[in-house]
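new request in #modeling-help
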Amino acid sequence: MMKRLQTSTWVYLLIAFVLMLLPFVKDDRWFLFLMIQIFVFAIFAMSYDLLLGYTGIVSFGHAMFFGIGAYSVAVTMSRLDSTFSSFLLGVVVAVIISGIVAFLAGVLTLKLKSHYYAMLTLALAGMFLYIAERWRSVTGGNDGFTFRIPELPGVLQDHRNVVIYLFTLLSMVLLFFGMKRLTESPLGRVLVGIRENDQRVESLGFRIMPYKVLISVVSGVIAALAGVLYAVSLRFVNTQVFDIEVTLDALLMTIIGGVGTLVGPILGSAIMNLSHHFLSDLASVHWIFQRWVILFGIIFILVVIFFPNGIVGTIQKKMHERKMKQRVKQVEKQSAKN
Amino acid sequence: MELFINLAINGIAMGMLIFLIASGLTLIFGLMSVLNFAHGGLFAWGAYSGVFFYVLLDNFWLGLLGAIVTGLLLGWLTELLIVRPVYGNHIRQILITLGFMLVLTEMLKVVFGPNIINAPTPEMFQGSWMIGDITIIKYRAFIIAVGLILFIVMYSVLKYSKIGLIVRAGVMNKDMIQALGVNIKLVFVLVFMVGSALAALGGALFAPSSGAIYAEMGLEFGIFAFIVVIIGGMGSIPGSLLAALLVGLANTFTAYYMPILSMVVTMIIMLIVLIFRPQGLFNISGVSNK
């Protein structure tokens, strides 16, 4: 078991290393931008996976944490000065606000059925969008505002995107391993137990609520960090960060990639961003590509019915089954010898 | 005082519209324990098809009928293709109906175009009555009347007829009802179709009162309906009516006196209800919220 874990870790590190070298091979602005988007949304979708995949909580308001993160850093950096200390202050503000919101939403509704959490988060996110639209003096409304990010000494203007690329990649890798560690810890096991059978977990002596609230806070804070990276990578923010579509993106990425796998959301983010990019280009070929959400909606429905484990989950299951079969064969062979 | 009464009438009319969407939602949830996130999409489809048939046939009533038929058909399709594979699994129900909501909204844009469409008010309901200083817009009075009639019909059917008894018993113990010779599957399909038709009718009635319809209205009003169902108590028809009126009135009054609060006030009501009475104002026995 230990050895298999290590090989997968090595594979992930190798992929991260290759991704790290990419901008030095292909220094194309649009390509870098697309990759940064993939990384940012991968973090966001992974935070969603903590709720949906590991604990079995459906949130429809994850965009509010994303928006809180994006606006926290954008407002602090445009109001103060664009230095690293104000960036860090923005991150701290993002963590605190998103943590409080996630805590309150969790305490109020997580003891109820899953519908209530889904609906309350949907309504709360709607409220955040509404407030952001109205509070134009701070948020800039739908037009949004641009802000400057700190200059790096010794880095040319042209290479700034490479630095942001490496920064988001590093954040994604660190958060990925952090979350992987969390889900493999005893705490993560309890969460999976809650997903599978919460009454059983309760009868084993665990109090469910603190666990659910805790993971809701962790997930919210990580989503806010994704929002921070999003705002910094664009150097621009508007009220679209609170849009329901942001939540839907995370949902689609997680479901298509594979719930409860953490790698799945990363793959889902890559698929969604790439196909969004290329299908929009195809819009001139046929109008259906302009309405690409239909295609994704249908794929989403089919995945939920036929492949509830998503891409990564289905592959893992197949591999596991094969391994079990081989083991059964081995045992049979040995018993035949005896 | 006149202003107060005018605002109250507007609020009640808005509440009745919300009640029409919410009642379908609470019917499907309360009777079948299925939470349909695509419900708002059915509302939007009702609005579009209502306007389409009204303009095409030049008859308001045929427009409403067209919307109801659309709702029945879409409800049947939803039950058959989307909900039936995932009965009993709440999380997958939520996910799959949300996916269907996306498809419904985008399909509206494909069929009717992505632009905002004008919705005409029928001639017989144009204008208003003046009683002293109180203005009653005819169409709003019509909506209130329709809402009240539907409430009374639904309430009495569920409470006193055999149908209501069968559906309520079917949810409590499906197998037992099946063994007693009732085709409970068919009953569930019918409930789903009626709930969807209610949403579609709500959409068709809403269109002339707002004057314009757009594809995203499904999601907006879907959220309203969910809030109302939470406040009123899942599965309770009187609860939905009361909560819808409360939300409608609160919205209209704050929109007049404190416009900035008009959206937030609904959320505040919901939060207060969730903190002090999480099962909702009314809660029929047999539907647990834990």
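bot summary: The longest strand of chain A covers residues 145-146.
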